[in-house]
Design goal:
The chain is 35% helix and 17% strand.
């Protein structure tokens, strides 16, 4: 007797790809053409990175670069690590992943849940710095026996995966009607692979990269930004600029706002990089016609960002949301123009110069940060205060000519510019000086004395809970 064949995959790896597409009728309302999302969230690992993960490992096995019982080592923002961990679980490999301290804590926990070892490195350092996550991964590859690094930023199997799967799926699902494809660029694998395939089918298809502000793809210098998993501070070999017709820079604030909007209005939980892509797609669609069709790739789910993008306290502290009533913005706005700039010192500044700066600006504690304004929150490394430096001068001689980097204290507590003065007053019970963030960027300092002076006409407003 013949038994009917089961409609069941042989392993989780067989479930990679063939992701669905859905219109975005709510956020796309009023636009002249349809905007359709390719939902990579339905891959087993929850992201588009499952595709290059299995392709890179397949290619490595064929070439004899990855042997049985070996260890996969890769720097990742999380999603590639999950894809590699899934493949490793099926094929008996160990995994070590290197991440920056920008990524959400749940991404670290997720990789550890798959049995991987995770090493976290600072984000605000140059790629060539020994402590960067690129350099750390390279060092581990040389130290760990039988190790293999897929090297997603330089591995041609990365764009190949999207050329062979994602691109054909989009062309088939849209019946060849796609006119514009929008996706974020990190390693460049998705936009390069999909772009190459679509352009081979139709020379008129436009390929648009959605990029965080400050990323090199849109002309930035690579300074830190808050959106995870997209943009870069260097040019990967897997990114082909000849495939990309246009690059649109999207701010952290716009990315996060769009992630919230798509989640609430469409019922599709997406992350910050998905918000970046949708924001760019809507901008593209504004200038099109009814004959056009915009496809935007959603790389992953918002489940990996619940402690950041979808956490009310984090969004408020980073200065992305405004509260009702009197806020920090009102206090700062009451200042004269010459008092609006942020006072800070660079790590190489001498203690003598830092003290002079504090006295000149009338503050007792200032941040230690890297770079020129506008700096990012990730570029703030610590703080120095006259009191702390005075105490340290009793323990060590000649500290005035040493750099503040050697003697600095932890960073100042932060507050969002949209936070209420009542909440800030409570925070200042523990710290008389706060660093004010506006859309994720340090903007100025706020002192307890200034807050009290602002509320002198209505002290109840400042002190009430």
């Amino acid at each position: 007797m013949n038994r009917p064949e089961l409609d069941v995959a042989e392993s989780v790896l067989d479930l990679i790809g063939n992701t669905p597409m859905v219109r975005l009728p709510q956020v796309g309302a009023g636009l002249p053409c349809s905007v359709v999302a390719k939902l990579e969230t339905t891959n087993p690992g929850g992201s588009s990175k499952d595709r290059p993960a299995i392709t890179m490992i397949n290619e490595a096995e064929k070439a004899g670069l990855l042997k049985p019982g070996g260890t996969i080592i890769e720097p990742t923002s999380g999603n590639t690590g999950v894809g590699l961990a899934i493949v490793a679980a099926q094929r008996g490999y160990k995994c070590i992943f290197v991440m920056t301290d920008k990524v959400s804590s749940e991404k670290v926990s997720l990789l550890e849940a798959y049995g991987a070892e995770v090493i976290v490195c600072p984000v605000a350092v140059d790629p060539d710095d020994p402590s960067s996550y690129y350099s750390t991964a390279e060092r581990l590859v040389n130290e760990v026996p039988n190790a293999y690094r897929p090297n997603q930023y330089h591995n041609p199997a990365n764009p190949k995966a999207h050329y062979e799967s994602t691109g054909p799926e989009i062309w088939g699902q849209t019946k060849g009607r796609v006119t514009h494809f929008v996706a974020g660029a990190g390693t460049g694998g998705t936009i390069t692979g999909v772009g190459r395939f679509l352009k081979e089918q139709s020379s008129t298809v436009q390929i648009i990269a959605a990029d965080p502000e400050h990323s090199v793809f849109s002309g930035g210098d690579g300074r830190p930004y808050l959106v995870e998993g997209v943009g870069e501070d260097f040019w990967p070999d897997t990114y082909d600029p000849e495939v990309v017709d246009r690059t649109i820079a999207i701010s952290d604030a716009e990315s996060f706002a769009m992630a919230h909007r798509v989640t609430k209005e469409e019922g599709i939980l997406i992350g910050g990089s998905g918000g970046t892509a949708v924001a760019a797609a809507l901008r593209v669609a504004e200038g099109l016609t009814a004959d056009d069709l915009v496809v935007v790739l959603i790389p992953d789910s918002g489940r990996g960002y619940l402690t950041k993008v979808f956490d009310k306290e984090w969004m408020a502290n980073m200065g992305f949301t405004d509260q009702d009533g009197l806020t920090v913005a009102d206090v700062v706005g009451a200042r004269p123009d010459d008092k609006l700039e942020l006072t800070y010192v660079n790590p190489q500044t001498t203690v003598r110069e830092a003290i002079e700066t504090m006295r000149g600006c009338g503050v007792s504690r200032i941040p230690v940060a890297k770079g020129e304004m506008p700096i990012s929150a990730a570029e703030v490394f610590g703080s120095v205060s006259e009191e702390s430096l005075r105490e340290k001068s009793f323990e060590a001689q000649g500290i005035l000519d040493r750099s503040v980097e050697e003697l600095m204290d932890p960073p100042l507590p932060i507050v969002g510019i949209g936070e209420t003065v009542a909440v800030v007053a409570q925070q200042m019970e523990n710290s008389p000086i706060l660093l004010v963030l506006d859309a994720g960027k340090p903007r100025t300092l706020l002192t307890h004395a200034e807050l009290l002076q602002f509320g002198s006409n209505d002290p109840q407003e400042v002190r009430s809970k």
